Amino acid sequence: MRLHVVTIMVFLILGPWIQGCSESPVPTGPQAPDGTVLPDGITAAPGFTSEIAICGEARTVTLIAGRDTPVGEVTVANDGATLWIEIRTTDGWVMHRTQAKIVSAGGAPVGVPPGLTRAGGLRLMALHKPPVEQHVHEFDLAAARLAPGETLIVSVQALVSNVLAVRPGPARLSAWARDLLALSRPGKRSFEYVVQACESQPGCELVFLWPLGGETLCIGNTYLVFWEPVEVCGDSVSIELLFAGEPCQTLSAAAPNDGEFEWEAVAPCAGEPEGYGLRITDLECGCQAETAQPFTIDDCGTGE
User: Fold this and answer.
1) Are residues 287 and 219 in the same domain?
2) To the nearest 10°, the Cα dihedral for 228, 232, 236, 240?
3) Do 145 and 283 reside in the same domain of the chain?
4) CA 127 to chain centre
5) Which of 230, 226, 3, 10 is nearest to 239 (CA)?
6) CA pair distance 36, 91, nearest whole angstrom
7) CB-count exposure of residue 145 (10 Å: 0-12, 13-18, 19+)
8) 65 lies in which domain range?
9) Over 90: is that where the pLDDT of 175 sits?
10) Is the dihedral of CA 84, 85, 90, 93 positive or negative?
11) Is 9 part of any domain?
12) Theoretical Cys-Cys bridge with 123: which of 6, 46, 101, 203, CB 3.0 to 4.6 Å?
């Protein structure tokens, strides 16, 4: 009997501890990109580089808390109009405040967009309530007078905490974006980024081959209109007859963009024989081509 009582008392004392070690409850909630389950109220956001067309290459460095604890990454990129600085955390780390500062490495003054102030450079700060896993700071390149090829010194700081930490520790830590190669220099809390130039994308160009201007087209006859679609063009074009530079007939609202169109039963506008042209418009990009010189549409009798 005494043995049974001792056994029951030991189970009552150690049972919850044993159960907690062997059957830890599986946490539920949203997941971070690395699969970490996050508490309710913390949102895992995708990286901005998958949502915008950036110029050149993005620059990514590590977000370091304390002396050497990686807590996330910082990516800098631009799309020709905007400089983007994305700060994101991993492994249960969240951000309560973020700030980003840029200065020109060459000493050129950085412009200040309306509503912002300069403190040795251009600085943006954001408070996050509730804390976040990702935030993007944006700088207008034109307002900041930043040109492609210019080297910037970028400083990014975040106030972070770990919502999944088991052991008690500092409630919040200061984290800085640092190049891993510079970890041997504790005072190095900035990195360089070169504003990337956007490559010109190939556009559609339509080139008229016939008519070119100066020809006389006979009323009622059929002619083949020729053009050459250059580079990347859409599948269809509209073809209009112009008189004095203004459309007066739509020959086709959507003709195949294959470089050839059969113009049947040619007729003038308002009975005027001279001052005509053709305009071809690519229906996808809106680019156009017109005959270089006017041509004539006239009654040729039995000839052409």
Assistant:
1) yes
2) -50
3) no
4) 24
5) 226
6) 6
7) middle
8) 48-194
9) yes
10) negative
11) no
12) 101
